[in-house]
Amino acid sequence: MSASEITINSIVGTGTEVYGVINIAGPLRIDGKFEGKINSTGKVYVGKHGHAEATILANNIVVGGYVKGDIYAEKNVVVLKSAEIDGNIYTCSVNMDQGVLFNGECRILGEGEMKDLLISKRKEKYVMQS
Questions:
Q1: Closest CA to 52 of 86, 81, 2, 89
Q2: Concatenated DSSP letters for 10-60?
Q3: Among 62, 80, 106, 123, which is least packed, fewest CB within 10 Å?
């Protein structure tokens, strides 16, 4: 594993609340609360105590906490047994532990189809809900 794969660029820490859009070129970890849209070219981690009400777009996504919203991962989604997802998953590969709470649809797509979907979703503007 290279240093760039284990370095976290940004963290939404425990006790922190962030609202809006995050565009990031590297890894992001959510241990606090985030509401909005995450657009990452790296990996997004939602920690065991993390809470994301968001659309998440990334190369790889690991969910250990709560996500309400759709997940789009170009390569892989890993859902840990402590996770709860209320939304849809779109990816080329998914690994889901036993005991996950999942309310949504999971679509496994080919690489080309997934890249096209990500391109279109990245172009969509996010509008904050009031």
A1: 86
A2: EEE-TT-EEEEEEEESS-EEESSEEEEEEEESSEEEE-TT-EEEEEEEEEE
A3: 123
Please enumerate in sequence order all residues whose Cβ is within 8 A of that of 54, keeping only pairs 6 or more positions apart, or say none: 34, 35, 36, 37, 38, 67, 68, 69
CB-based contacts of 19: which residues, under 8 Å, 6+ apart? 34, 35, 36, 128
The token pair at 82 is 């402590």
Label residue 34 by pLDDT band (50, 70, 90). Answer: very high
